[in-house]
Amino acid sequence: MLIQNKRVGNKGMFFAETDGNILAEMVYSMSSPEKMIIEHTEVSDELKGQNVGYQLVHTAVEYARTHHIKIVPLCPFAHAVFKKKPEYADVLYP
Question: Which domains does the chain have, with CATH numbers?
């Protein structure tokens, strides 16, 4: 599944779409150039059970690593993923 990133100003989202319809999204804001706050994650019923939510978080982690950003996972889903994946600790905001 192709995960894309769209950012306008300090707001953005990682998302997956099919035929122009967004089926999964993870919304974030940049509180500073070095800090991303994951606010909300949503996956359509059509994609449930395909680990798309994990793919969204993974893409955000890779983006953060590439751009030297720390992540604050306020979203309960993203927070749970960070707890399950200690290998993501390098981008977790203290």
Answer: 4-91 (3.40.630.30)
Assigned token pair, 21: 């319809």
What are the angstrom distances between the C-alpha of 68 and each of 11, 50, 76, 93? 17, 29, 23, 11
Q: Residue 11: beta bridge partners? A: 8, 29
Paired tokens of 85 = 């994946």
Query: Residue 89 has which token pair?
Result: 């600790």
Q: What one-character-per-residue DSSP string does 24-68 give?
A: EEEEEEEEETTEEEEEEEEE-GGGTTS-HHHHHHHHHHHHHHHHT
Q: What is the CA radius of gyration of the chain?
A: 12
User: How many CB atoms sit inside 10 A of residue 81's CB?
Assistant: 21
pLDDT of 22 = 97
Q: Mean pLDDT in the chain?
A: 97
